[in-house]
């Protein structure tokens, strides 16, 4: 319970990470039940009479998705399959586990903050059908070309996304796309332009030593304490209108980034 008499719930949904069992999570707030609109403002005596008549006076429980985490997964694990968000009472009925999982997945993409895996920033490394199963990009991870398909399956588009305040944080970026400047440029090039203002990237692990020093190499001041950077802020710094800012690409020949992921 929270200080506002709300309950916190953690819901689980299945994803796909090659042959490994894998799940994602969504943290939700369950709001206190309210009276149904037609009964609001009635005197307590009338409310008591309705209860005695076994008339349902409470509205459905309202669930608000706050934070979602996908875990390691490919796009097939995140695409919606036509499920619709149901009321708490409907969720309490007997439904199969796969339906419940899909409902929770749909709720995840309604969360205020979504931590979404995104491993490969070059579509050559996508989850291609018939590809070499021994290659790392065929082992259950997301490629940048998969993002549009996933979010559109959840009803996200330019029009409705502009009206909400959701944020999406991409994590698990492959070190093969480092250093961070290269990875961020690939994100700007590969993501839908309307999505970028709400996007962040967890890039601290792929910062080169030169980028960590900042200066002309990289706008290190934009990296938050969490190790994430706003793509919109990075884009504004890299392509300021009316200027010719061009951050120098650092020499990465001696860095110690793991290029095997």
Outline the structure in words.
- The chain is of the alpha/beta class.
- Helix content is 23%, strand content 15%.
- It is built from eight helices and seven strands.
- A seven-stranded mixed sheet has the order 1-2-3-4-5-6-7.
- It starts with 6 loop residues before the first strand and ends in a 23-residue tail after the last helix.
Give a quick set of tags describing it.
8 helices; alpha/beta; elongated; 7-stranded mixed sheet
Summarize the entry for a quick read.
The chain has 261 residues and is α/β, with parallel strands linked by helices.
Please write out the topology.
Layout: E1 7-14, E2 23-30, H1 44-52, E3 63-69, H2 88-91, H3 97-108, E4 113-117, H4 147-153, H5 158-161, E5 167-171, H6 180-190, E6 199-202, H7 209-213, E7 228-230, H8 231-238
Parallel strand pairs: 3-4, 4-5, 5-6
Antiparallel strand pairs: 1-2, 2-3, 6-7
